[in-house]
Inverse folding.
């Protein structure tokens, strides 16, 4: 039960119920879609990137608490970051949830570390992040986690 | 104790007794007793089935057919005994109408590629329903791409019942086949398959029934239904995975070209020409899943040890009890309220994604399935990305429902719902 409380801690539930940066971004210049066939999570991510810096980020979609909270937290944390910094953050978050690596470098995103104890939920947590990478790289086909 | 309570009590005791045939049900998950409610995905296996597979490999392992030595003869006898068991399960007229396959999916692919590909052309129509499993959609889509035929879809009502009026309208001179599920894996709906077959036959259209969810929960009589093809999987019938059967009317199977080429399905081979074996071997290329077939035969023997009346009454009382219990949970909506149902309950909870429910229930030892259940068009119909699904089998009891309900309340607490 402790691990479960860790997974569904207050910050996660808060971001699930009231996702930050939800909706479309009219002047987005990088857009990508992600889909997790396992649980049906879908996300569409809108980024506005100027001079290599992510000025704004929004998302819409339908997902479980982990997928939604992760997308919400991600949009908050990548705003103002350079694309290469955002991609490095992806690596760190992935390392944390998939391999159980330290969340020391990811700041507030460490709330996602509980996912590591639930391997079948790693894809939920990383969906938004892979979608962000696809958006930055202008990948047209939807990202799938399987 | 009222009479109704006494009957419930007796029913529960009976299920607890049946439960002891299934060793895995003694397991614990996260320190809690396993409550297995994912039977629509696969059922657990009684000890007799597990022992039968083991016994085959321990004592009679040999390749079937054309073997002159004793072991091969024993293996062949056991394999063919299983075919007869399937014949009786479905009340087919002859065991030569029973083709062993990997499962329902392969059975449907076999019919699509063997029956459909040689016959269907551009302009032909295949009727499916909105509640089909992907395995009764994709093989037909592939066939449509190959032949130019198109799919027509029977819509369903909000309760999850086939719109029979719409079905009648879909049948026309272009219809070449109807392929529908006997029981919906997501909604539990039992479709009026006899009526579906009768209507199709009035247009001289053959019907394939997907029996994957039906065979363990309803008696099936293919002669009475008069269906042309019937497909099912052993593993949803308390048998092993990787084995299932296709029933086809002999005249249809006879006229169909071979599906896969290889050993066992031939009479003679030369580089100039191959002549094919008789039914059902024409459709069984290569060494089959012998252990699986034997296990399936024993699973059917196991099921034959029950009185269908007892099983139907037990599972129906579970359905009534579980429907009532789940309906009382605030924020919970049951998806699929057909008048005729087997004990499958798909549901959604306000403010909680099914996937989160699945994780939280697992913590309580309760195994359910969450997602689209391989019925994405059906999910689309209900405007849902996913549902949580509890599906029951003969070994489940009211106690399991109580644990499920309690686990849902626990899950809601975590989400502060």
């Amino acid at each position: 039960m402790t691990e479960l409380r860790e997974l569904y801690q207050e910050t996660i539930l808060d971001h699930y119920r009231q996702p930050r940066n939800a909706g479309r971004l009219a002047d987005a210049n990088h857009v990508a879609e992600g889909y997790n066939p396992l649980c049906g999570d879908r996300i569409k991510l809108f980024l506005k990137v100027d001079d290599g810096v992510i000025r704004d980020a929004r998302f819409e979609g339908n997902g479980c608490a982990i997928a939604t909270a992760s997308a919400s937290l991600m949009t908050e944390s990548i705003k103002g970051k350079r694309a290469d910094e955002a991609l490095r953050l992806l690596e760190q978050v992935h390392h944390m949830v998939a391999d159980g690596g330290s969340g020391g470098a990811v700041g507030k995103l460490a709330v996602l570390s509980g996912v590591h104890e639930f391997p079948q939920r790693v894809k939920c947590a990383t969906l938004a992040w892979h979608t962000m990478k696809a958006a930055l790289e202008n990948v047209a086909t939807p990202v799938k986690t399987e | 104790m009222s009479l109704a309570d006494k009957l419930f009590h007796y029913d529960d005791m009976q299920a607890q007794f049946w439960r002891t045939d299934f060793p895995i049900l003694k397991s614990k998950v996260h320190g809690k007793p396993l409550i297995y409610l994912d039977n629509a995905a696969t059922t657990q296996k009684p000890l007799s089935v597990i022992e039968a597979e083991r016994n085959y490999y321990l004592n009679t392992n040999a390749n079937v057919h054309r073997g002159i030595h004793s072991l091969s003869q024993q293996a062949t006898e056991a394999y063919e005994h299983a075919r007869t068991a399937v014949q009786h399960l479905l009340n087919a007229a002859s065991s030569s109408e029973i083709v062993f396959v990997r499962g329902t999916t392969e059975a449907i692919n076999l019919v699509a590629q063997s029956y459909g590909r040689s016959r269907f052309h551009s302009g032909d129509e295949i009727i499916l329903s909105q509640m089909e499993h992907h395995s009764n959609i994709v093989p037909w889509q592939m066939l449509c791409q190959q032949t130019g035929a198109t799919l027509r879809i029977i819509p369903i009502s909000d309760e999850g019942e086939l719109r029979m009026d719409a079905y009648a309208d879909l049948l026309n001179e272009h219809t070449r086949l109807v392929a529908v599920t006997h029981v919906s894996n997501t909604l539990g709906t039992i479709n009026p398959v006899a009526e579906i077959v009768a209507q199709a036959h009035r247009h001289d259209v053959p019907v394939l029934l997907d029996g994957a969810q039906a065979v363990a929960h309803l008696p099936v009589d293919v002669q009475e239904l008069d269906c042309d093809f019937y497909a099912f999987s052993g593993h949803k019938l308390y048998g092993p995975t990787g084995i299932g059967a296709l029933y086809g009317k002999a005249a249809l199977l006879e006229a169909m070209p071979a599906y896969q080429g290889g050993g066992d399905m031939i009479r003679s081979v030369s580089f100039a020409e191959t002549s094919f074996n008789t039914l059902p071997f024409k459709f069984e290329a290569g060494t089959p899943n012998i252990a699986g077939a034997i296990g399936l035969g024993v699973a059917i023997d196991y099921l034959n040890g029950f009185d269908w009346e007892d099983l139907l009454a037990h599972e129906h009382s579970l359905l009534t009890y579980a429907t009532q219990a789940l309906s009382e949970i605030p924020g919970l909506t049951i998806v699929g309220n057909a008048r005729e149902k087997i004990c499958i309950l798909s549901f959604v909870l306000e403010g909680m994604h099914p996937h989160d429910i699945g994780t939280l229930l697992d913590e309580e030892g309760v195994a359910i399935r969450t997602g689209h259940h391989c019925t994405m068009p059906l999910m689309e119909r209900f405007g849902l990305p996913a549902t949580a699904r509890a599906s029951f089998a003969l070994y489940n009891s009211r106690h399991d429902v109580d644990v499920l309900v309690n686990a849902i309340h626990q899950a809601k607490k975590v989400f502060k719902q």
Observations:
- Chain A has a mean pLDDT of 92.
- Chain A is about 40% helix and 20% strand.
